[in-house]
Amino acid sequence: MKANPKDVLTGVYYIDGDVASGYGALAAGCKFVAGYPITPSTEAFEAVCHRGPQVGAVFIQMEDELGSISAVMGAAWAGVKTMTITSGPGYSLMQETIGFGAMLEIPFVLLNIQRGGPSTGVPTKTGQADMMQSRWGAHGDYEVIAISPDSPQEMFDYTIKAFNLAERYRCPVMIMSDECVGHMTEKVVIPEADKIEIEARRMYNGPASEYMPFKPDPDLVPKMARAGAGLNLYITGLVHDEKGHPVKSANYKSAHVRRLVDKIRLNKDKIIELKEDGTDGADVIVVSYGISSRVAVKGVEIARQKGIKVGTLRLVTVWPFPDERIAELAQTTKAFVVPEINYGQVVFDVARCTHGKANVVLVPHGGAGVHNPSDVADAIEFAAKHESPLEGVHEFKTRLEKSVFEGGLKLKE
Amino acid sequence: MNPIINILDKGIEQSGVDRKTISIPSDIPFPPDAVKTLRIDYFQTPRGRAIAFGTGLKLGNPALKVIPIVGDLMTLGGNHFVHGARRNMEILVLCINNFVYKKIAGKPLTSANPEFSAYSTFEEPFNFPHLGNSCGAVYTARWTALHTKELATSVAEALSKRGLSMIEILAPGPNYYRTIDGVNSDILQFYFDNSIIKNNEDPRNVAITPEEKIVVGTFTDRERPTFIDSYNLQHKKILGDKFTPHGAAPTERGGKDG
Fold first, then answer.
1. Closest residue on chain A to B76 (Cα)
2. What Cα–Cα distance (Å) separates residue B79 from each residue in A172, B55, B76, B100, B244?
3. DSSP for A34-75?
4. Which residue of A has its CA nearest to B241?
5. Which domain holds residue B177?
6. ipTM score assigned to the predicted complex
7. Are the C-beta atoms of residues A112 and A91 closer than 8 Å to each other?
8. Which of A276, B36, B107, B240 has the smallest C-beta neighbourhood within 10 Å, fewest atoms?
9. Residue B255 Cα, gap to closest chain A Cα (Å)
10. CA of B44: which chain A residue's CA is closest?
């Protein structure tokens, strides 16, 4: 299905990533946005509040993030495409209801413009330390999809993709961007509506008496319905059967929660998007996502000038994780270098997938800034020259870390 | 039948509202068999989020009649009520006040009556009608669960209101109360007998205290522009013809075939 021309602000713009994401949401057919402004995501909410009413999308500034995400859940059951926008502390507040969304298989998009944490952290500066929270934030077993764009253009394109994935798999989809990309202003081309493919909600159109809200199609995803259609919906966050009625037995619990997990895991080949360059025959592969992949480009360039065979693998989709591809590359490469703006999150999944076949080097950054490309280059050089196996994840000492800690924090005897 | 479901059933019948359009987000779990008799759409939300979830339902499809049901755990999510009333979101909030959350055996909650907690409680209870009235609700009422006729009429009246209505229902059911000396074993009857109907009473005077009779009745009934009214007015004023007022219902079911 093509986008509605009324929703698409076709043209060439010079805008930041936040605004581009807001425009992407409208283009994807989002008709309800609830949020509570929080730096550095506010511009995205402002963009929706500004353009939304002109294209028939309604917005509300809720009393807090708990309210925002709950309203988004309600609006999804009212039958519209929905999104909420947040950062840092707001994202933490939303976690319980994200789990509720996963349990009720509510299609919605959450834009998280990551900032420096923990707690209030550095609101105006960047971070990539919510990655594991996006995966494991709520209690219980569930799977989500997380995408990490690295430019304003991608913020537009991948916001549309996020909506499409949410509708196709009826699950929470997180756009895990960061302050740098959110506030980065670049050229953004918004194409004509007929060039934008959007996924319609997978609605039930059979007889009302036969509707089972959680009876899956062959791809494990059930059909959605809307409130007010005379279907007498009974929808609960308790473990439920296909009718939606609560059940307590271990059998049902396994069957239900297993499907929530497997509808993503078994479809992951269709979900995962990676961008690879020169990975075949590379001695070192840089695995990165979001703003760190933009910074890594320069680091890779420096290392290549030194004659090192470096490939890059960009995780456009961070969750579900490309286990098989990493395992495959681990057979042929010496080491993976993972720059991320945290003290080790996605790097541990890279290490898990190498099965000890390749070294894994983390290039950490505490946040409130991005990596120095020379550090990425040095880490690549270190990884290329290091022949013996490194225990676990090796943390590379960057210039910043050295200057701040002079060799690292030590426990005093 | 569950007394609350019974009252809702009567009230909805009396209001003449098409049941198909009614959605009930509730943070109190009602069993499917009880809900089925209402022939409405039911959503059990996370604790304390029924009002916020209902706000989304209403804005997602303004044709819906939304009745969030919250426990006296309005402790959790009370802010959604305060702001729902302020912005006059068109929903009917039913606050089921049983004074105590029985599963935590008499812990003092914000609405708990001092008389009926294990070692009594030193915390002041909420006066819900006053809270609703002062925040801007267009309709506030309180009844005990045994005032079935009055409650049904209140539900019907509230469903016809444009804006946030709230009805506090005193339904102290738990067996817990029966163990307290000096409290009548039939606690529902106890509250009914100790209540006094004072319609149009100033909500400031209806706080529940152990010394006085419980004031029940309809306290607030007024008109104010709803959130959607104000939303439409403001955007129409600024955007003119570029703005299509929010309020048209989405087409029935619709979406991709299947």
1. A66
2. 25, 13, 8, 20, 30
3. EE---TTTHHHHHHHHHHGGGTT-EEEE-SSHHHHHHHHHHH
4. A54
5. 3-226
6. 0.96
7. yes
8. B240
9. 5
10. A236
The conformation of residue A181, written as its DSSP 8-state character, comes to H
Option in B56, B249, B255 nearest A74 (CB):
B56
Q: Which two tokens stand for residue A316?
A: 């456009």
Interface contact A227-B32, CB threshold 8 A: no
User: At B192, is the pLDDT very low, low, confident or very high (cuts 50, 70, 90)?
Assistant: confident
Cβ-contact A370, A180 below 8 angstroms: yes
pTM: 0.94
Chain A residues within 8 A of B17 when measuring between CB atoms: none
Asked whether residue B66 is assigned to any structural domain, the reply reads yes
B56 and A227 in contact by Cβ < 8 A? no
- Whether the pLDDT of residue B98 is over 90: the answer is no
The structure tokens 């707001």 sit at A90
Indicate the number of domains in chain B. 1
Query: What pLDDT was estimated at residue A33?
Result: 98
Judging contacts by C-beta atoms under 8 Å, the chain B residues touching residue A76 are 56, 60
**Sequence-ordered strand ranges (E) for A127-272:** 145-147, 172-178, 185-190, 234-236
For residue A398, which phi and psi values (nearest 5 degrees)? -85, 170
Q: Is the distance from CB of A145 to CB of A271 less than 8 angstroms? A: yes
CATH of the domain at B206: 3.40.50.970
B12 to chain A, closest Cα gap in Å = 15
From B81's Cα to the closest Cα of chain A, the distance in A is: 10
Q: Chain A: nearest CA to B78, how far in angstroms?
A: 11
What is residue A218's predicted lDDT score, i.e. its pLDDT? 96
pLDDT-based confidence at residue B101 (cuts at 50, 70, 90): very low
By residue count, chain B amounts to 258
Could you tell me the domains of chain A?
Answer: 5-195 (3.40.50.970), 275-405 (3.40.50.920)
CB contact under 8 A, A227 and B23: yes
> Hey, which bits of A221-328 come out as E strands?
234-236, 274-277, 284-288, 310-315, 317-319
Q: Is the pLDDT of residue B253 over 70?
A: no
Q: Which residues of B touch A74 (CB under 8 A)?
A: 25, 43, 52-60
Q: How far, in whole angstroms, is CA A404 from its chain's centroid?
A: 31
Mutate to test the interface with A, among B42, B57, B65 (most CBs of A within 10 A): B57
Question: What is the DSSP secondary-structure string of chain B?
Answer: --HHHHHHHHHHHHHT--GGGEEEEESS---HHHHHTTTSEEEEPSTT-HHHHHHHHHHH-TTSEE--EEEGGGGTTHHHHHHHHHHT-SBEEEEEE-SS-GGGTT---TT--GGGSTT---SPPP-HHHHHHHHT-SEEEEEETT-HHHHHHHHHHHHTSSS-EEEEEE----GGGGGSTTS-SSHHHHHHHTEEE-TT--GGG----TTSPEEEEEEEE-----HHHHHHHHHHHHHGGG-PPTTPPPPSS-SS--
Residue B46: inside a domain, yes or no?
yes
Strands A58-61 and A11-16, by their bridges, are unpaired
Mean pLDDT on A313-337 = 98
Residues of B in contact with A205 (CB under 8 A): 253, 255, 257-258
> Which residues of chain B does A80 touch, with a Cβ-Cβ cutoff of 8 Å?
60-61, 250
Q: Is the pLDDT of residue B184 over 70?
A: no
The answer to the question of residue B55 being in a domain is yes
Give the distance from residue B163's alpha carbon to the nearest chain A alpha carbon, in angstroms. 16
